[in-house]
Structures are given as structure tokens and as C-alpha cells.
Specification:
Layout lengths: L2 H4 L1 H26 L6 H37 L14 H6 L11
Bound molecules: zinc ion.
Length: 107
């Protein structure tokens, strides 16, 4: 069994998550680029919302980066190897956290 087949399910999972996050990030982008309202009290509420949206947005972008690098590793055949000790990360851990880059010992 090749590495790619071994991680086929995880790859699918990552790709689905990436799609969902990308869609969400775009929706957040749209929300943020909407012109501000003229009413100042309305503005105050909106900028608070924007702060939350920006937080969610940067979290999504962070996750997108992690997922992309995990997918790149699957393609390169280096997925599931701990960044620190270079041992195999247990599949159970990868299933729980598909973009883990270290084993539990190296957390
Ligand atoms: Zn390790």
C-alpha cells in the first residue's frame, strides 16, 4: 500500500475542510468589505462585529495554511512524520488532528 493510499481518507477529510474554510473565509471577506453605514451607533456595532469576523478570518486562514501544508506533505510522501523526532505520527493522532506536524511526545 502506498503512502498516498494510506492517507486517502485523511486527504479527503482535509480537502473537504479546506473547501469549507475557503468558502467561509470568502464570506467573511465579503462581510468586511461591505461599506459602513452612515449611522454612527450602527457603525459602533458593526466594527465590533468586524473585529470578531477578523478573528474568525485569521483563524480560518491559519487553518487553511495548515491544511494546505498537510496536503502538500501527503503529495510529497512526507505526511505523518513528526517534525521534531522524524518518527511516524500514530494514525489515530492524525485522524483526530489531520494537520498535526508532531507526535504527542514532541508537543
Ligand atoms: Zn516526535
Amino acid at each position: 500500500m502506498s503512502e498516498m493510499n494510506e492517507f486517502l481518507d485523511i486527504k479527503k477529510q482535509l480537502e473537504e475542510k479546506l473547501r469549507a474554510l475557503t468558502t467561509r473565509a470568502h464570506e467573511i471577506d465579503d462581510d468586511l468589505s461591505e461599506p459602513a453605514d452612515d449611522d454612527w451607533s450602527e457603525n459602533a456595532t458593526e466594527s465590533e462585529d468586524d473585529e470578531v469576523l477578523e478573528k474568525v478570518g485569521s483563524m480560518a486562514l491559519d487553518d487553511i495554511q495548515k491544511i494546505k501544508s498537510a496536503l502538500a506533505k501527503i503529495e510529497a510522501g512526507t505526511y505523518g512524520i513528526c517534525d521534531r523526532c522524524h518518527k511516524k505520527i500514530p494514525v489515530k493522532r492524525l485522524e483526530a488532528l489531520p494537520y498535526a506536524t508532531t507526535c504527542i511526545k514532541c508537543l
